[in-house]
Amino acid sequence: MQEKLVFATNNAHKIAEVRAILGDRRQILSLEEIGCREDIPETADTIEGNALQKARWVSRRFNCDCFADDTGLEVDALGGEPGVMSARYACVNGRGDGHDASANSSLLLERMEGVENRKARFRTAIALITDGKETIVEGIVNGSIATAPKGVDGFGYDPLFIPDGHSLTFAQMTAEEKNAISHRRRATEALLEVLKDNI
Ligand code: ITT
Fold first, then answer.
1. Which end of the chain has less neighbouring CB within 10 Å, N or C?
2. What is the distance in angstroms between the CA of the first residue and the CA of the last residue of the chain?
3. Whose alpha carbon is nearest atom 10 of ligand 1?
4. pLDDT one-digit tens code per residue, 21-40
5. So where are the chain's domains?
6. Is ligand 1 within 6 A of the CB of residue 17?
């Protein structure tokens, strides 16, 4: 029988990506599926800290094995911003409320106007807690920031991110193409390495 593992997120895109990568090796449950409707605190100042904070919160509250991720888009010319603030970049800069992907992208484009060095990376940290043991893995995809949004697929900053070695943004790729090279793919593969003795 497959062992259950909670992915501490309600982001349906992320759940689908991770399920596609882990296949039927492990049954992945979302927060909704375990009946968790509370807002989990994400107050750390690094993506690793946030991932661990979420995983600890869920594993203690629901007494389950679980993992949580946090992702930041790190733009060199902006000193690594939006980074840990990626989800609420516009909001912390006084634009829009909460998590507004289109306001975030508009602000990023504005800050990158006329900037030549467009190098950036998506970095995902995953914190895993199994039998009380904590492990952190990461996945990175390097790329650059487009000068205008392109494509309709994906989510978040996908229309602005062109991975190195490609001419299309993540949002112009199929889910399979993005999943094959994404930061989350790489982090999930690292997670799989850690889990493989148990599956
Ligand atoms: P949780 O419910 O899991 O917290 P979230 O949407 O807040 O979901 P993250 O904290 O992991 O997601 O990521 C922070 C932000 O970074 C997210 O809101 C997106 O704007 C962006 N992001 C993360 N992964 C991305 C991806 O694969 N493509 C584009 N943008 C992404």
1. N
2. 10
3. 70
4. 777 778 899 999 999 999 89
5. 4-198
6. no
